[in-house]
Every structure is written in C-alpha cells, then in structure tokens.
C-alpha cells in the first residue's frame, strides 16, 4: 500500500529525519468543534456516533478540514472492548461512561472472554477502512486502544472514579482476580489492535490514562507488564510497511526508563515532565510525543506560540519528536486557539530540523 503523501508523523515516530515537527492533538475530534456537536446530535448520542462508520468517518475528518494536522485518529472510544465483552456501556448525560454490569463477582470475572474483533467490533474495523478511503492517503491514520489496566479501572469501578477504591481493593486483596481480568483484556487488546492494523491503521497508540494512579511496584506488575505483553504480540509491519506504536501512561514520567524497555517505538508524555529531560533519559531509544499543557489553549494565540516554542526548544535540535498536548483537548477550547497551536508548531519547528 502506498505511503501517505505526508508521512512526517510516521517518520518522526521511527526517529527518521523530517523537515519540521509533526503535530496532532489527543481528542482532536470532539466537543470543542461546533461541527462535531452537530454530527453528534444527528447520531443521537456519543455511542451511536462511534457505532456508525459513516458518521465516525465524518467526525474523524472534521479537525483535518480546519487545521493542517499531520495525522488523523480513528474516532471511537477505549471502552468499545468492555462493551463487546458484554458489560453494557452507556453514557449518562454529563456523567461520563458507565457500565450496566461492572465486574465484581468472581464468577463474572472467571467467565470473561476476549471478544473476536471481526464480529463484535466490526463497526470499528469498518470505520477504519472507510476513514482510510476518505483520507486518500493524505496523512496517516492512528488506531488505538486503552491499556488493560485502564480498561479494568472502568470495568471494575463501573465508570469513572476519583479514588479507584474498587479496583485497588481487588489489586491488594485479590490480585489473582485482577491478573485474570488483565490477561483476558491484554489478549483482547492485542487482537483488536492487530485487526485495526489489518483494516488500515498506520500507527497504533495505547492509552494508559490511569496507570499513573498506581504505586511504583503496582505500575510495573499491573499496567506495564500487560502493555509489554501486547507490544510483543503486535504486528510491526503491514503490507511491507512499518506500523509504529506509542505508549502513553498519564503520570508515567517517573517510570520513563522502564516504559522504554517495554519494546515501544514512542512514548507519550503528559505535561508534568520537561520534554528535554525526558529526551535525555530515553537515550535515543524511542521517539517522544507531547507535551503541551492543554490548558495553554485557553490563553491567546501569542501565548500559545510562546509556549509551543518552549516545548520545541526544550526537546531541542534533531528528530524523533511528535508534538501533541499532554492530554486530551478540553471541550472549552476555542477552535481558533487549536489552529494557532498547529500553525505555531509548523512555523517554529523547522529551525530544529536543519542539518547541523
Ligand atoms: C479514558 C478514556 C476514554 N476514552 C478515551 C480515553 C483515553 C484518553 C484519555 O485519557 O482521555 C480515548 C478516546 N476517546 C475519544 C477518542 C477519539 C479520538 C480522538 O479524537 O482523540 C479517544 C482516543 C472520543 C471521545 N470519548 C468521549 C468523548 C466525549 C463524548 C461526547 O461527545 O459527549 C469523545 C469525543 C467520552 C468519554 N470516553 C471516556 C471518558 C472518560 C469520556 C467522557 C469524557 C468527557 O466527558 O470529557 C473514556
């Protein structure tokens, strides 16, 4: 399959030379865009939007029509896997995700089965195929999944949580049960990401949004270990083309060295770590993605450009940097400020890519 006309993002993930620093934004298709809210209203609700490949394609392309982003990301959610496992996902208005049947009883946990993506997650694979067609090879498409630990948080808590009381109780009192959930989920994620790659995803990202809530030892045992297992089973090539992967543990700056050893191509960083320090610590073994504080986008175009420059300067001269926010873009971001970010990255980064 032909490589994208703009393959800057893929090249940066593989630490190859590029003329500038590529940029995309986590949650780039979302509620800060009025056109997203319109499509979502047509779908009825968020989950129906995810499950309709035509509408998922439409919203995936919306931010690309406004900004010259260097990658598209599949419009979906990390919770499609537990939904396909039969937990009954729904979104209560204004309250975030919920499960009708959270995992609590041992028999429920023991009967958990990894869904076959070709049947139970067909709508996601159809969206990937359709988005690739609509992109006409202009920029690469990123596929994604949640990490097993992050998915387990929602599956056990039954929704979002501020203290992770249920899952941490299980972690300390019944680690065997949590390990079972994580093992089944890791197998599900591996099959799901490989199916996305087969359907046309040109890079894949694992979102470990809650790994940072764990203790040092528990992170290695309950989150990183299972991401490592996924990375070992991931297709690294499709049709002769390398498919790079990105691991993003929010709050994972402390564990950078061990994340690097997991076998990933790139590490996503939240805004709490200095990207120059992160670069020194990873010793050229992986690319880095990040890491502007999304709250910077509430300021003004001038301030945004100055903050972009700080991140670029901290990373410094050379390759292997994909610019991104340190977490998803807020729904309260003015779209013109997202535009200012993308333009600033392109305008200010070229000087860091000249041959020295
Ligand atoms: C934890 C998590 C979820 N989903 C996701 C994560 C990991 C990333 C992170 O840490 O934020 C990942 C995700 N969710 C969504 C994407 C789409 C791709 C993209 O543009 O980046 C991606 C990559 C769409 C979405 N997923 C969701 C929305 C908003 C839904 C809406 O339209 O009402 C979008 C655009 C809903 C969602 N989905 C989830 C939550 C907690 C919520 C509610 C959040 C909120 O209300 O702000 C679970």
From TrEMBL:
Limits of the Uroporphyrinogen decarboxylase (URO-D) domain: 22-31, 142-158
Residues reported in the UniProt entry to bind substrate: 27-31, 77, 154, 209, 327
Molecular function via GO: uroporphyrinogen decarboxylase activity
Annotated keywords: Cytoplasm, Decarboxylase, Lyase, Porphyrin biosynthesis
This enzyme's EC code(s): 4.1.1.37
GO biological process, one term: protoporphyrinogen IX biosynthetic process from glutamate
Pathway: Porphyrin-containing compound metabolism; protoporphyrin-IX biosynthesis; coproporphyrinogen-III from 5-aminolevulinate: step 4/4
Compartment annotation: Cytoplasm
Catalysed conversion reaction: uroporphyrinogen III + 4 H(+) = coproporphyrinogen III + 4 CO2
Site entry: Transition state stabilizer: 77
GO (cellular component) term, any one: cytosol
Entry function: Catalyzes the decarboxylation of four acetate groups of uroporphyrinogen-III to yield coproporphyrinogen-III.
NCBIfam families recorded: hemE
Binding partners and assembly: Homodimer.
Similarity comment: Belongs to the uroporphyrinogen decarboxylase family.
Protein name listed in UniProt: Uroporphyrinogen decarboxylase
Species this protein is from: Nitrosomonas halophila
Primary gene name: hemE
């Amino acid at each position: 399959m032909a490589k994208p006309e703009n393959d800057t993002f893929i090249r940066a993930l593989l630490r190859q030379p590029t003329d500038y620093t590529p940029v995309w934004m986590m949650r780039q298709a979302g509620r800060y865009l009025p056109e997203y809210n319109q499509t979502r209203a047509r779908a009825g609700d968020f989950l129906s939007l995810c499950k309709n490949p035509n509408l998922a394609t439409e919203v995936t392309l919306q931010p690309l029509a406004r900004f010259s982003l260097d990658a598209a990301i599949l419009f979906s959610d990390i919770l499609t896997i537990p939904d396909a496992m039969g937990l009954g996902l729904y979104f209560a208005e204004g309250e975030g995700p919920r499960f009708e049947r959270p995992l609590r009883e041992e028999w429920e946990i023991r009967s958990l089965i990894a869904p076959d993506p070709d049947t139970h997650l067909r709508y996601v694979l159809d969206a990937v195929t359709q988005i690739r067609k609509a992109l006409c090879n202009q920029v690469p498409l990123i596929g994604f999944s949640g990490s097993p630990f992050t998915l387990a948080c929602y599956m056990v808590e039954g929704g979002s949580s501020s203290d992770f009381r249920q899952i941490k109780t299980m972690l300390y009192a019944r680690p065997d049960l949590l390990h079972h959930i994580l093992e089944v989920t890791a197998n599900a994620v591996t099959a799901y990401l490989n199916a996305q790659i087969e359907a046309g995803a040109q890079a894949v990202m694992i979102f470990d949004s809650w790994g940072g809530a764990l203790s040092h030892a528990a992170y290695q045992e309950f989150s990183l270990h299972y991401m490592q297992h996924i990375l070992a089973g991931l297709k690294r090539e499709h049709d002769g083309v390398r498919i790079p992967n990105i691991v993003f543990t929010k709050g994972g700056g402390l564990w950078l060295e061990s994340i690097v050893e997991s076998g990933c191509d790139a590490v996503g960083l939240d805004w709490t770590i200095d990207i120059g320090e992160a670069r020194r610590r990873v010793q050229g073994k992986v690319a880095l993605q990040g890491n502007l504080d999304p709250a910077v986008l509430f300021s003004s175009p001038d301030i945004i450009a100055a903050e972009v420059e700080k991140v670029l300067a901290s990373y410094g001269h050379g390759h292997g940097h994909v610019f991104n926010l340190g977490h998803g873009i807020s729904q309260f971001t003015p779209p013109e400020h997202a535009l200012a970010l993308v333009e600033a990255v392109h305008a200010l980064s070229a000087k860091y890519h000249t041959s020295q």
